[in-house]
Amino acid sequence: MNQILPFAQVIIAVFLMVVVLLQQRGTALGSSFGSEGGFYGARRGMQKNLYWATIVLGAMFVALSIVRLVA
After folding, report:
1. Contact 61/9 with Cβ under 8 angstroms?
2. Cα 11 to Cα 7: distance, rounded to the nearest angstrom
3. Are 1 and 60 in contact (CB under 8 A)?
4. Is this structure's pTM higher than 0.85?
5. Taking the CB of residue 43, how many other CB atoms lie within 10 A of it?
6. Which of 17, 26, 59, 71 is deepest in the core (most CB within 10 A)?
7. Closest C-alpha among 4, 13, 39 to residue 25
8. For residue 18, what are the contacts with CB-CB under 8 A and spacing of at least 6?
9. In whole angstroms, how far apart are CA 11 and each of 15, 24, 39, 59?
10. pLDDT in tens, 22-49
């Protein structure tokens, strides 16, 4: 089991990075300072799926980290 955990953690980390990078939030650096819109409506479709995938993958990564620390 201790040999599988590092590989699972790396795979989940890669998927987590991909999911985070696929999310869209603004078109330029200026949008992070509030100059373009700033308000985003409800998440729909693929955006909602990416949001939940980020939460699930993040929770899995934290859980694997704790299990690896304890084991």
Report:
1. yes
2. 6
3. no
4. no
5. 13
6. 26
7. 39
8. none
9. 6, 23, 33, 14
10. 987 655 555 555 555 555 667 788 888 9
| Contact (CB, 8 A) for 12 and 61 | yes
For residues 43 and 25, give the distance between their C-alpha atoms in angstroms, rounded to a whole number. 11
The more confident residue out of 10 and 23 is 10
Q: What is the DSSP letter of 10?
A: H
Which whole-number Å values give the CA distances from 14 to 37, 61, 69, in the listed order? 31, 10, 20
- Which tokens go with 66? 């704790």
Are 50 and 19 within 8 A, CB to CB? yes
The residue ranges of every structural domain in the chain are: 1-23+42-71
